[in-house]
Amino acid sequence: MAQNTPVNEQQRKMVKTYLDEIPCGDDVFLSKEEEKTRKERKKLPEGCRDSVLYRDIMRIAWPSLVELFLASLASMVDMIMVGQINESYFNCISDNAVAAVNLAAQPKFIFVSLIIALNTGITAAVARARGAGDHEKANETLRQGLLFSFGVSIFGSVVGFVFAEPLVAFMANGGLSEATMAMGADYLRIQMVGFLTLGISSTYTAALRGTGNSKLPMVYNIIANLFNVLGNYALINGHLGFPAWGVAGASLATVLGQGIATLIAIQRCGTGKYYFTVHITDFVRHFKPDLEIMRRIIKVGIPSLGEQLILRVGIIFFTRQVAGLGDTAYTTHQICMNIQSMTFMLGQAMAVSSTTLVGQSLGKFRPDMAEHYSRRCSKLGILIGGVMGLLFALFGKYVVALYSNTEAVIAASVPIMIILGINQPIQTPQFILSGSLRGAGDTRSTAIITFIGVLLLRPIVAHFTIAAFGVVGAWLAISADQIGRTLVVTFIYGWGKWKKIKL
Predict the structure, then answer these.
(1) What values do phi and psi take at 93, rounded to 5?
(2) pLDDT by residue (tens digit) across 85-139?
(3) Long-range CB contacts (within 8 A, 24+) of 287-294
(4) Residues 347-377: pLDDT tens digits?
(5) For the chain, what is the largest distance between any 2 Cα atoms, rounded to a whole number of angstroms?
(6) Under 8 Å between Cβ of 330 and 322
(7) Is residue 17, in this structure, part of any structural domain at all?
(8) Which candidate, 137, 274, 302, places its Cα nearest to that of 205?
(9) C-alpha angle with apex 335: 97 to 435, nearest 5 degrees?
(10) Burial 445-470 (b: 16+ CB within 10 A, else e)
(11) Is residue 72 part of a domain?
(12) pLDDT class for 174, splitting at 50, 70, 90?
């Protein structure tokens, strides 16, 4: 049974949701909740209003949305700036440079998946501790998470750097030029050199989101993205007195931006002003492993790792199928994927709110509030996703034209952008309800859902649709995958077993 804890000065800074104003649940309360009908569970607690819950959701979601939007925008600008590479100076065409960056991104995401899995466990554990009012446990969870992140990041850096060329060659699947693969390998090596900073900053982000603080991650990631864009300008074609390094310059700019974000996160989370009081000196002077906290992180993180690996392996083989269609088809596909990342952010922002609020609600023994929050996150996400999908369907080709002036690429993108637009209100509830399950610690279900969609449904459909419709067929397969995953996650969420998971 959870106990109400006196609010100290640090906790007082975090009192900003309806959850902080209501009492903790107990065994009697949980028994009464189980006896309620579906209709009764939809009713809000006495004195609670929809507006209050939507306010809580948006307090967490809007900084995440801004962060994700600007990150996607920075990625878009990154691609646009790479697409403006000096073709005569680097002896390549701009479309090949764009393809090279995206070619290297997929192997990198395999290593990023290790960090994402770890951070899923950290967010869930911190959210539970925050909901229960256990400030010290939240602090210690961050310390343990940073230790994990350090080890995983070092491993990823070494492996990714050493095997950069064979990883890129594998992704190319014999369909891309030697020049494209060489640029891709250079890009990947530099990314892996800076992988440690990415791992550490993302761990801080995960922990902060578990407390409900999405503003600080927004700030330091915005600064990182601005630094990245400035670095691109200076290093790709050579400006401000710097040499022209082409694709390698774009990679270096990204790494330097990540380093800036890491330094800010370390400094801010050591001040005590953002709930945590974790100092970098902790690891030198008095850090010691906590097996119980490690177990909790691993309990959630291992299935999440399986999910991420399934996702990345599926995407890699899917990308290889598309790469085999040639440079033009591959470039079209990757440009549209980059644009889609801007629409993903809508569901992801709502998923951040859902993960945080569900985790905190269950930590406070209030599964009723967990359900109220997640349902309203879904409603908001579907509405926003529908609007954005319509905009991309209507004006998508003009956005594609910002990436490439190749007529064949623009023409091939038109039907893809329509499919992308239709997908938005379908895939958004999948993101959000999956976020709710992760907040509860149910990463096993999300791993199963991902397996069904990415390793079964998508490749089976793609086998037929790519042969029949080329790159457009690839996006029909993506659409089938999203529909399938949305149906399965809706069923599992409605089942309700996630509300009884203990960490």
Answers:
(1) -95, 155
(2) 655 444 454 556 677 777 777 778 778 888 888 888 899 999 998 988 888 888 8
(3) 287/143, 287/147, 289/144, 289/147, 290/140, 290/143, 290/144, 293/125, 293/137, 293/140, 293/141, 293/144, 294/144, 294/148
(4) 888 899 999 999 999 999 999 999 999 999 9
(5) 74
(6) yes
(7) no
(8) 274
(9) 125
(10) bbbbbbbbbbbebbbebbeebbeeeb
(11) yes
(12) low
DSSP codes, 48-72: --HHHHHHHHHHHHHHHHHHHHHHH
Q: Bridge partners of 274? A: 276
What is the residue range of 389's domain?
Answer: 50-500
Q: Write down how long the chain is.
A: 503
Side chain identity, residue 129: A
- The model's pTM: 0.81
DSSP sequence for 357-405:
HHHHHHHTT-HHHHHHHHHHHHHHHHHHHHHHHHHHHHHHHHHHHHH--
Residue 24 domain-assigned (yes or no):
no
In a domain, residue 37? The reply is no
DSSP three-state, residue 13: coil
Q: How many CA atoms lie within 13 A of 119 on its CB side?
A: 25
The tokens for 248 are: 């390698």
What is the number of structural domains in the chain?
A: 1
Instruction: Name the amino acid, one letter, at 300.
Output: V
The tokens of 14 are what?
A: 């975090």
* Angle, CA 351 vertex, CA 461 and CA 489 arms, to 5°: 45
The answer to whether residues 128 and 438 touch, using CB atoms and an 8 Å cutoff, is: no
For the residues of 419-448, what is the DSSP string, one character each? HHHHHHHHHHHHHHHHHHHHHTT-HHHHHH
Tell me if residue 276 falls in helix, strand or coil: strand
